[in-house]
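Why does this matter for the project? Reviewers at the last site visit asked to see concrete outputs rather than summary tables. In response, this paragraph embeds two records directly. Each consists of the residue sequence and, immediately after it, the corresponding structure tokens. Nothing has been edited or filtered.
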Amino acid sequence: MENEASASIVLEKVRQKVDRIDAVLASINSSPQRPETLLEWGSDALLRTIHDNLVTHFVAAKTFIPAIADAGLYLGIGGGMADKLFPYYAYNSMIQSALRMMFRYLDHENTARRIEIRELIISAMVTTDEKANTGERKFNWITSHQVGEHIASMIETPAAFAGPIQLLNSSHGVGRSLSMELTPPPPPSPQANV
């Protein structure tokens, strides 16, 4: 998903294999090689990270949303760092905040409501089933299998997960809708443009 041209190649390969696209799952990210405070970052590194973690999601959405069949789902995966401070992860928090707003705007601009558009925020540590069974799992961790089960529920019944931003923050939330809705702003008054 480097750019629109590369994303179009992926879309064409998908179209060669299937007659109809009912759902698209976009899970795209990369991480810097070493932890640094925000002011230790250079602008080139920050721009590359924004490209690799935000622009790629934009390119995927722009390419695949028009290709999804009616009543389908476009689902992006995000993380829970937009609302929390983690040492050396300012870049991640900034990008996740922007990604969340991107999905809100995609949903808001989806006026025809031909498809559902969602972002799933995974705000818990994810472990493997193997580690969970050995006692290495912490209290609020979820397994990769549970994440997959939740995503399958969203794909099977997208309307049951109302609201553009959905949260999965514990194993108790698997298969359940937990919306992170903003209160919509009131319509502008006629005097606002005076």
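We now turn to the second protein, recorded in exactly the same manner.
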Amino acid sequence: MTATTNRKPNRLRKTAFILGAIGLLIVGVVGVLYQRYTNSARVRADAEAYLQGFFGSRVSVKEASFSLFDGVRLHGVAISDPFTEKFAQPTDSATTANSAGTAFYCDEIQIEHDPMAALSGRLVIRSLLAIDPICTIVHDAESQKTNLGTLFSRKPNRTTSTMVMPTVELLDARVRVLSLRDKDLRTVENLRLTVRGLAANKNTDLYDVVWQSGDAPGTSGISQVDLSTGLIRNVRGGLPFMSVEAVMLAINAGYDGASAWRDLLGLGGTVRARDYNLIGDGHSQEGRSATIDLNDATVSIPSRKDETEIPPDQRYLRFTHVNGTIHVTVDEVRAQFNGNFHGADCEVSATITGGVGEWSSLDDVAFDAEIKLANLTLPSRKVGAPAGERSFIHGWQQLEWLYDKFLPAGLVDFSIAARKSAGAGELVTIKNAEVVAKGASTTYFRYP
């Protein structure tokens, strides 16, 4: 009995020793794996590979730190590619915050990850929070492209079946729109936004993106972005109000004809793109569209090709203090707005039809328009009259005949509905017109 009793403690001690050894081995292996997979250099390399696979563009990280339960901290994160890097000035570094060669830069990104996956050597990211990042959109006048089109032109190097699509938040981001022309880099717009992106569906490239303006509190919107194609579709609220130039330069990445109708309409002032459906470079134009809200904007239209040489602020068909909407597709522009026309209150409803990229004046397009003007001072073709007025009268056969016969002048209320087919030789068909004289005069000569 004594021998049996002695053997039991021996077995217990042996079992405890074996379990302890196994425990130490496990701890040692875990420690080695932890050190191997969580050291700064490896975390930085893994983070660069992950982000590069996520965005499909070149990513660099200056410093990285890892905590099993507190997450990953990245410092000096920059996203660029060959297209954006060519914008960098000689004194810039391609990864500096304010370099035009960097599409995205952030001093600190906080990452929440899966601790259990980290123990097995995998970096599974649940969310990314970028604090005070700088996002730069650069439009190159020579190529008529922006870096956004290039960023989305290549399918990211990832498989959605194995990559968890994380939540992405840009907290108090500065969004810059820059224009590069003849090596001169100019800032067009600076915006402050907070942006949050949520995967629309599990294992897809679709993101629902919610933005809130830091410049106009209470202003927000939701878009849906397809990271694999660059498709951007408005869900609600559109984009923030900004200058026309900034909107046109920014969306030109997915709307190569944008500059054509911007120039045709001579758009200026403050606008907001909403109900847009824009596709990145290299994709079919079918379905591309945008609705532009006008807020105290200007619209100036060249009535003929020779009027394209007249500065927009000197053309006769010039509307100021415009409020309304312009809806643009690949094939047509529909406009409905009110504003001021040479001192007269005006209401305009018009549809202009034709290939967007082929427009240079109203000669090139078909249109159907209705215009109402109150208290309009009639244009003049007298010597010394503004060049825009004289050119406008001379350019329309029926109008020039009217001035030849009657020399109208003075103040009127005027409304007209007219249409024209595309082509320089096509005449304008007047469906109806009404003139109410309010102190106007005419002269009629007849001999004998």
